Amino acid sequence: MTSPSVWPNGAPKVGQTARRSREVTARAIERFTAISGDRNPIHYDEEIARRTRFGGIVVQGGVTSAILNAVVAEDLPGPGTVFLSVAWDFRAPVRPGDTITGEVEVTSVREDKPVTELATRVLRQDGTLVLEGRAVCYTMPLV
């Protein structure tokens, strides 16, 4: 069984869920661009973006998926948790000004080490599924 110091409030349980929401601001997009160097015109040039299948500016996938980093590190499994692997499908665009909600559900917890598998998804404020998939996480004790 995993050490109680890894999860002071007990190991996550299959079926347990957590979620967080945030608005995708122009500032968040600019900061992601500064970190990543992703200057794809579909994220900034309205004229070019309008001519794509998206019909307008779309937010970088890294900005969209970042909400899941917050849910995993802050809520479930919680502090000390990092992604070991992720498999995400992007289903619909996120636009500047959208509010997104990241959700995780525990699908398995290892008994021998602090590894948790999660179903993951991100929704827009209108309920549209924009990202779905799974993640495997490792939680380390924080001293």
Record the SSE blueprint:
Layout: E1 17-23, H1 26-36, H2 46-50, H3 61-74, E2 81-90, E3 99-109, E4 115-124, E5 129-139
Antiparallel strand pairs: 1-3, 2-5, 3-4, 4-5
CA(first)-CA(last) distance: 20 Å
Rg (C-alpha, Å): 17 Å
Unreliable spans are none
How much of the sequence lies in strands comes to: 25-35%
Order of helices and strands: EHHHEEEE
Regarding quaternary structure, what we see is single chain
Shape: elongated
- Strand order across the largest sheet: 1-3-4-5-2
Tell me the helix content. 10-25%
Largest β-sheet summary: 5 strands, antiparallel
Overall pLDDT: 92
- SS class: alpha+beta
Count of DSSP-assigned helices: 3
Structure description:
The chain starts with 16 loop residues before the first strand and ends with a strand. A hairpin with a 5-residue loop joins strand 3 and strand 4. It is of the alpha+beta class. It has a 5-stranded antiparallel sheet with strand order 1-3-4-5-2, with helices on one face. It contains 3 helices and 5 strands. It is 21% helix and 34% strand.
